[in-house]
What does this fold into?
Amino acid sequence: MRGDPPMDEEFATPGNFSYATEYAHDAGRGVREETVRYISKVKGEPRWLLNFRLRALQIFETMPIPPWIPVDLTPLQFDQIRCYLAKNQESKRRWEDVPAEVKATFDRLGIPENERKFLAGVEAQFDSEVAYSNLRRSFAEKGVIFVDSTEGLLQYESVFRQHFGKVVPAADNKFSALNSAVFSGGSFIYIPKGTKLDQPLQAYFRINAEQFGQFERTLIVVDEDAEVTYLEGCTAPRFESSTLHAAVVELVVMPRAKVQYITVQNWSSNVYNLVTKRGIAHESAEIRWIDCNIGSRLTMKYPCVVLAGTHARGEMVSISVAHHGQYQDTGAKMIHRTSHTTSHVTAKSISIGDGIAAYRGFTQAMKGAKNCKNYTRCDALMIHPESVSKTSPTLDVRGDLSRVQHEATVSRVSDEQLFYLRQRGLGEDQAMGLLVNGFLNELLREFPMEYGVELKRLIEMEMEQR
It folds into this structure.
């Protein structure tokens, strides 16, 4: 993220570069049974997981695309997408052992620098597989597990299998079924009882190949009274053909444990970003999603917290930026299964040009759940007359004595505001950047300092291209 070297003109946008790569494993094009069997065989998986994949494939093939999806998905061409490309199967523990072109990619994105500065552990995924994985020895000695999903399955099967596919089942939606059939890469994390990591773990997902589908699967299990912060960054170069990113994230947070899951995605405009993220918070547990989405042709992402234990808390902080020709359909889901649970959602969006930014939220207090509290706030800023902002909240309150609130504001940058700032000596781009950063400043403070600085830079670059 930070520490990128000076970029050539053709790579003026961070992340918009790729390297010619030869792959040792290639499942070919299309989503077929042969594809699924190839992936499972190459990864040396047990029979139960192959059966899981094949059932998921059947669900994907029979489940229709939801009619409410706001953008035509025809350009994805599922029969042409490459589902699995990998240079090798095993992630490297030493940076020096990572293949040259892969290392060059992550060097350019600043991964080694961030690892040295403030990370407890880091994982770097290149196309289908994790290329590099490292956890600081002091945390490994405490019993912390941080490996890619394949290693997690093979080495820690009892824990992995107990929770895998339980939070987000294959039949949840068409794209969770697709992920369940062809997933590869992603993280498996286990934090033992009472262990509180004072430094974050980070995973970085990089799409390098054209007309590719990245399907990482992340499972995080945080035991009682434990705490962890997980950082996730994603980029892809710009190609003419469409690229698919369909990840699944499952969080299991035991009593009194806390998880903070931070995502910064800076996709190119050819990416369809269709992600399912959900966590279960048990008694007095806390799940906090902090999410920023920039770029992509279409993003559909609604991180969910299932509040399953009394006094559990869920929070969502969301920033989305929709540029010309982009549709950011983002939001949050808060499911109050039991009494005395609390949730909070704060979402801010920016629409530039004819970009569309939509908030889609769902809050439910289930029957029998009493004294549930939710507060949701959505603020939208539209830069141009043709910019679009939408809000689609759903509130389903069946429990007694519960309180659910939703408020939304929509504003537009006015000529008067720009004129006032320009009279103070600022250029038009500077003035617009100041107004936008002022709009987002409250939420930018929620990100770690290094991420907050990078986000401001990325948003300023988006404004310069308006």
Observations:
- The mean pLDDT is 83.
- The two ends are 23 Å apart (CA to CA).
